[in-house]
Amino acid sequence: IAFTPDGPRGPCYTVQPGVASLAQITGLPIVPVSYHVNWKLRARSWDRFLIPLPFAKVTVVFDPPLRTPPDGGDAGREACRRLIEERLRAITRD
């Protein structure tokens, strides 16, 4: 399953709690993934949607998986949400 963690309405680069909640319920790991496109057009929308141009080089970055403790409750879920956001910001070139 893949999610855009900032949700359909943003704000951009702010991870919403749904990703951590689903990981907590299912027990599945979260793998932070980011990318960089060297030749692109960028929309002027809240999410700054980008369109790769022909012959663009796309670099995809994977961070090690992380798990949300199933018995962590709200505090564990919020800690996981913050960690996901921190790790995504660390691997995102913008």
**Helicity, in percent?**
25-40%
Strand content: 15-25%
User: Structural class, from secondary structure content?
Assistant: alpha+beta
Q: Outline, from the CA principal axes?
A: elongated
Regions with little confidence, pLDDT below 50 for 5+ residues: none
How many separate helices?
A: 2
> Mean pLDDT, rounded to whole units?
89
Question: What string, H for helix and E for strand, traces the elements in order?
Answer: HEEEEH
Whole-Å distance between the termini? 24 Å
Q: Major beta sheet, specifics?
A: 2 strands, antiparallel
The beta-strand count equals: 4
> Largest sheet, order of strands side by side?
1-4
Instruction: Work out the radius of gyration.
Output: 15 Å
Brief write-up:
Helix content is 30%, strand content 17%. It is of the alpha+beta class and 94 residues long.
Features:
4 strands; two-stranded antiparallel sheet; alpha+beta; 94 residues; single chain
Task: Tell me about this structure.
This protein has 94 residues and is α+β, with helices and mostly antiparallel strands. 30% of the residues lie in helices and 17% in strands. The strands form two sheets. Strands 1-4 form a two-stranded antiparallel sheet. A two-stranded antiparallel ribbon has the order 2-3. Helix 1 packs across helix 2. The longest helix has 19 residues, at 73-91. The model has no long low-confidence stretch (mean pLDDT 89).
